[in-house]
Design goal:
The chain is an alpha/beta fold and 329 residues long. The protein is built from 10 helices and 13 strands. The chain is 43% helix and 20% strand.
Length: 329
């Protein structure tokens, strides 16, 4: 589709007509006679000759060229633009941060892989999170690993493969939930996340964080961060292997999320499938139409026409030069 960015310049089309009508050229008819020896006669008579102006009558071709040139200039000033078909692009409107517990208990081998191999809790979490990430290929994913002090393993990114590669490069440490929550809030704020969602996965209880649990959850709620908590392991176990299900439930309730308990790999997969269904992908559709400026086309067209008209004259003059030289010789 063709559009004009400055269509008001089209009003200049009739400007030459107005000038011709309102300010016409001064014409004064006078009689004239051609006589030989005009300069000698003027000297004898004592009359000083005055210079005059002769306006040659223009041909139709010349008039058409002038009109065509003016039209090309006006159209170029109107800035014609070719507008292409609408192009839509979908951009994810949901940002998900995964906080993974790397406490010493995550090395315990009480989970089984799909081929019935005995694997650690960390390996089970990595396998399930990889599948979860592949199903959220349009979302931005981030990864926080919390040990003595939580650290950002992967900032929010749309590169799912990079996210899963860095997920596999983990090491074990001591857990601290609230500091992981605080770091996720900080990352969400810095990267201006939309619809922020935190998935907190842990298999133990928190004994390291200095910030009170309820306060950390309330701050997350204040910043609009919804937290889904996933507990791995046996809640009846003793010591560091005991899962603090109640605390994880409180975190989820305060922030409007949901809490889950997974005691094997199948349950862990089911948990992330449910999270995937509860928090469907959200897209922001941005539509734009490509524009190509065509202001140079009328100017180039006029130049091309002028070249075609002047080329025969140049060739004719070039041919006449040798003939004139022969005549002089």
């Amino acid at each position: 589709m063709l559009e004009l960015q400055t269509p008001w310049f089209l009003s200049l089309i009739f400007l030459p007509v107005l000038v011709y009508v309102l300010v016409p050229a001064k014409k004064k008819p006078q009689s004239a006679i051609q006589v030989p020896q005009f300069e000698l006669l003027s000297q004898v008579s004592g009359i000083t000759p005055q210079q005059g102006v002769i306006m040659l009558k223009r041909t139709k071709r010349q008039k058409l060229i002038v009109v065509f040139g003016w039209l090309c200039i006006v159209v170029a000033l109107a800035k014609p633009v070719w507008v292409g078909e609408p192009i839509s692009r979908e951009k994810s409107a949901r940002d998900i941060m995964v906080a993974l517990d790397l406490s010493g208990s995550m090395i315990k081998k009480d989970f089984y892989s799909q081929d019935d191999k005995n694997i650690t809790r960390l390996q089970a979490a990595q396998q399930v999170l990889k599948t979860f990430a592949e199903s959220r290929d349009k979302d931005r994913l981030g990864l926080i690993l919390f040990g003595d002090a939580p650290y950002l393993q992967v900032p929010l990114t749309e590169e799912t493969q990079t996210w899963t590669d860095l997920l596999e490069q983990t090491s074990l440490g001591i857990a601290g939930w609230q500091t992981a929550i605080g770091l996720s809030i900080q990352v969400f704020s810095q990267q201006k996340a939309s619809n922020p969602l935190l998935v907190l996965l842990s298999d133990g209880n928190d004994t390291v964080s200095k910030m009170p649990l309820l306060k950390a959850a309330q701050i997350a709620k204040k910043h609009g961060v919804k937290i889904y908590t996933v507990a791995m392991g046996n809640p009846q176990a003793e010591g560091e292997y005991r899962v603090d299900v109640e605390s994880l439930q409180k975190i989820a309730e305060i922030t409007g999320g949901k809490s889950y308990l997974a005691q094997d790999r199948v349950e862990l997969e089911r948990v992330y499938q449910e999270i995937d269904q509860l928090e469907p992908q959200i897209f922001e559709t941005k539509t734009y139409r490509p524009r190509v400026s065509l202001h140079f086309v009328p100017v180039a067209l006029y130049a091309f026409v002028m070249v075609l008209l002047l080329l025969p004259l140049l060739l004719r003059n070039k041919r006449s030069l040798p003939q004139q030289k022969e005549a002089h010789q």
